[in-house]
Write a structure and sequence with these properties.
By secondary structure, the chain is α+β, with helices and mostly antiparallel strands. 34% of the residues lie in helices and 29% in strands. The longest helix has 15 residues. The protein is globular. It holds the Pfam family Acetyltransf_1.
Length: 181
């Protein structure tokens, strides 16, 4: 399948809640080497070829805003203190407005399939709702599992082009908001 970028939007109302399985807990980013923790996770999920590249991205995207990072980057830890996932309740410019952004939702492969994704997304969306009335996320056609989870949270496709309209059809998600007309 061709990798085509896609966007989704959410009004941050009626966020479904999913309990975190026993033996896991959430915590926020701290300045105590958590940038390396973040880099390890996003590298393990193949978002970057190596941790150095991930750290460069962190430096560009989050390091200038560490106070915000401490309130918005969520980590998923095991009871024995291993950090196995992350999600960010960030923000961004969308249609010339600053709104929330569900960003960098990642669970390392050894912990995928353990019913952790939905609770992690719910936690991030709950934090987004503290700061924003609406949010967006970006994904791609090569992430059907993520799109399936976003659908469970009622994220809606945001369609601007014919290519995006076709792409949504390939992932079997009925487009409901078409902004190309």
């Amino acid at each position: 399948m061709e990798k085509i970028p896609l966007a989704m939007v959410h009004e941050l109302k009626d966020i479904p809640q999913f309990p975190l399985p026993e033996g896991y807990y959430f915590r926020f980013f701290s300045r105590n080497n958590d940038e390396k923790t973040w880099a390890r996770i996003v590298t393990a999920t193949d978002e970057f070829p190596n941790e150095q590249a991930a750290l460069r991205r962190f430096e560009n995207e989050f390091a200038p805003y560490l106070r915000e990072a401490e309130k918005r980057i969520i980590f998923l830890d095991t009871a024995d203190g291993q950090t196995v996932g992350t999600a960010t309740a960030w923000y961004g410019k969308w249609n010339d407005k600053k709104i929330g952004r569900l960003h960098w939702v990642e669970i390392i492969p050894a912990y995928q399939g353990k019913k952790l994704g939905r609770p992690l997304i719910a936690e991030a969306m709950n934090h987004l709702k503290l700061y924003h009335d609406a949010a967006y996320l970006t994904t791609q056609t090569t992430s059907p599992a993520a799109i399936h989870i976003y659908k469970a949270f009622d994220w809606q496709p945001y369609i601007r082009t014919d290519i995006e309209r076709s792409a949504w059809k390939t992932v079997n998600y009925p487009p409901l908001i078409d902004h190309s007309v």
